[in-house]
Amino acid sequence: MAGYFEEMGWRELQEGEQPNHLLHMARFLIDFGMYEDNFSGEWPRLPPPASKEAVQNLPEVTIDSESKNCPICLKSFHSGDKAKEMPCHHQFHPTCILTWLERTNSCPFCRHELPTDHEGYEAFKKEKKRAEQRKEDLDTLHNSMFS
Ligand SMILES: [Zn+2]
Ligand SMILES: [Zn+2]
């Protein structure tokens, strides 16, 4: 097994260090190509809830036009209504978006993601990004060698 760990760029834990099982799992899924075959690069289930901090920090805005709908309940806003605004600038009734974000972390309209408190999911996202970067590097290398 030593060869495998070396190949993956892993080192043995130093004294006092704890293994990070969640990170291990994320790497495991990606390095074995499982996430490509089975999950097509997506988290295998609904992403976890948005972090409480991110939710608390969503700015409250006042609706100034009658023409917009809340994408969750589809009721139209009235001028002067309070709404919560996501970082992607989509606006929702506070109760609609807060209930939604207790279930999953992304904007129901455009899937813009808020941070979560879920270590496993954050590790997964980080590793996914790293894998994409690695693939890009390989593509660049491939193109420079074969074109
Ligand atoms: Zn609503
Ligand atoms: Zn959005």
UniProtKB/TrEMBL annotation:
**Record-level GO BP terms:** protein ubiquitination
Entry keyword annotation includes Metal-binding: yes
Pfam families given in the database record: zf-RING_2
Query: Keyword Zinc-finger: yes or no?
Result: yes
Q: Name one GO molecular function term.
A: zinc ion binding
Q: Where is this region: Disordered?
A: 125-147
The UniProt keywords, alphabetically, are: Metal-binding, Transferase, Ubl conjugation pathway, Zinc, Zinc-finger
Q: What is its EC number?
A: 2.3.2.27
Domain of life from the UniProt record: Eukaryota
Q: Where is the RING-type domain?
A: 70-111
Named in its record, the pathway it takes part in is:
Protein modification; protein ubiquitination
What spans are recorded as compositionally biased (Basic and acidic residues)? Answer: 125-140
What is the reaction catalyzed?
S-ubiquitinyl-[E2 ubiquitin-conjugating enzyme]-L-cysteine + [acceptor protein]-L-lysine = [E2 ubiquitin-conjugating enzyme]-L-cysteine + N(6)-ubiquitinyl-[acceptor protein]-L-lysine
Q: Which InterPro entries match?
A: Znf_RING, Znf_RING/FYVE/PHD
What the protein does? E3 ubiquitin-protein ligase which accepts ubiquitin from an E2 ubiquitin-conjugating enzyme in the form of a thioester and then directly transfers the ubiquitin to targeted substrates. Catalyzes monoubiquitination of 26S proteasome subunit PSMC2/RPT1.
Instruction: Return the similarity comment.
Output: Belongs to the RNF181 family.
Protein name from the UniProt record? E3 ubiquitin-protein ligase RNF181
Its taxonomic path starts at: Eukaryota, Metazoa, Ecdysozoa, Arthropoda, Hexapoda
